[in-house]
Structures are given as C-alpha cells and as structure tokens.
Request: fold
Amino acid sequence: MLKNILHERPLFSLLDSLHFHCVSSLTRRANIKRSRLIGNPLQEIVLNMLLYDGCIVKEVVGGLKTIYEYQYGSYSVKYLYGKGESKAQAFFTRNKTKECIINSKDLQNNIANTPLIIIDMKYWNLLLKEEQNKLINQLIFTLYNVRKYLWDLNLVITNIDSEDLRRKIEETFGLNKVIKTYFDTEQYIEKSSIEYIDAILLDPNANRVLEPVEVLKAKAFIVGGIVDRIIPRKGITSSLVKNPNIKKRKIVLRNSIVGVPFSVNKIVEIILRSRYETSGNIGLAVRKSFSKRDIRWRVRYECLKLGRVYEWDLKKIYNRIRIWLPINFEDFKKICMRYRD
Reply:
C-alpha cells in the first residue's frame, strides 16, 4: 500500500522518468518561482514544470556543487546548483526545446488524481468579515501544504457560489490550477467517479476516530471552510454532507481532540503528514503540526486531568507528558500552576 501511496505524488513521477532516462543528477536553467518549499528543490522543479509548462533537457552542465540528494529506494537523484566541481546530467528549463526528454504533459499523465483535498465553502456567507479574512489566509497555507506533497489539481474548493469569492481566491493564490467549483461536495465527488465510501469528512464532533488505515486508503478528504473562533458554531461541520456512506471522522491525540489543531490548513497538514511521512501514524503527525498555542491548550488539559491523580506533584505530571509533548519544565510549570487551585 505504501508504495502505491508514494506514487500518488508528482515527485515520484519525475523520479521514475529520470530513472528511465538514466539521469541521476539535475540542475536548472530557469528562474524558479519559489513556493517556500524549503528542503526539497526537486519538488520545486515538479511544481514549476506543472504550473509553467517547463521541461527537462538531457545535457551535461558542469561547474556545479551538490546541495541536495533524494534517496528513492536503491536509486538517488542529486540536485546541483552554485559553483563547484561536479556535473549535472540534465537541467530544468521553462523554454521548450526539441531536446526535451520529460515535459509537463509526460509528468501529468503519470500522476494519480487522488487523493482529493476538498474544502467546502458552503457556509462562507455565514462568516463575519474577520472570519472570512482568516479563512482566506488559511486557504493560502492549505495550498502551500498541498504543494509540499502533491500539487494544485489535488486541491478542490467546492460551493463557490459567487464570482466575488472566486476572484478573492484567485487573487490570493496567484498562478494556480486549483479546482474551484460551484458544485457542492457530494456532486463533485460523484463527478470525479470516487465512491462515497472512499471519502472522509473531518469532523471534530464525529462519533468515530480517524484510523491509520483510513488515512492511507481514502481517496477524498473533506474539510469545512469554517472559522468559528468569534462565534462558536458547534456541529455545523456535520451538516456539510448528507450521504450516509461518506465517513465522518475526528482527529484525536491520545483519545482527545484537545490541542489538536483545528484550522483548515492545519487539518490538511495533519492528513498529508499522516499519509506521506508517518505511515498512517496520526498522533505523530498531530505533534509535528503543533503550534505553541496548541501545546499550551494540551498542557492545560493534561494538568487538569492528572493534577489530582498525582496530588499536584508537577514533576510527576511533567514526566508523564514530556515523552510526547514538546515542552520544557519551566514553561510547563507556568501553565500548570495556574490551574493548581
């Protein structure tokens, strides 16, 4: 299953194509429009090929140094850039040439069209202006998270019922190929030939917990475009879909939703980390996605839960949680002492 999951990623389509053409080192002869994907320049090349219709040319380019190497089973690809003494066997360019060995169409033809990350904007008009602005900001980071692993066509925004909202999203995203549709989520899933049973609505009020096998097998993840920090709207996510075959699941950390990030971009980050980084370990993905604020909320919860059990011995409480919560004792003590009485 894991091998099939890896091949959903456009990065591996590029790696397979490079391997086929016996290319193990790569550079660029084009200005890369960075998407802030720090750490993997090969993914940057993938995105630039797909967004700007670039291509790979097989030609030796010397005078470079290796700045990145990606291991793919027994095969590895080096990315070279800057001044050095090494040679690249091929380069990426945004200028199409007859010598192009891999173009954007080749790449796209080998990319799976799932999983879909569906952001449902059904309740956009219920949000206050401030909440709408927060949601648009979250959508920017959602696209960023999707592009770390997949690319624009894996992100779908449904229930866009006004040109004003569509224009706002387009202006925010810049150049993109994100799918934006007036269809509701269930209509779009049916249109995409995805079985409802293969779709999951991420709902903090769901009765069942998202399981590792589900995060690895699902073909569509639905997230509500909802911000309810100013006006609580408990239970509204559950009403986004009506089909009973669409699973409703909540993300928990050690049997509780407390401290689990709830913003649209963070939920998407947890799902993608679980699927592509942690082999379905959702708890680890949650911890990797923690903000300082999320940690504070969870420490508060653990203090209230464990305080009486350990007679408010802060050292004992801290030793219980420091294994899985990234916080030092002094910060822990400041938070916990507030709830001691």
About this structure: Residues 129-149 form the longest helix (21 residues). Residues 292-337 form one domain. The radius of gyration is 23 Å. The chain has three domains: 2-109, 116-288, 292-337.
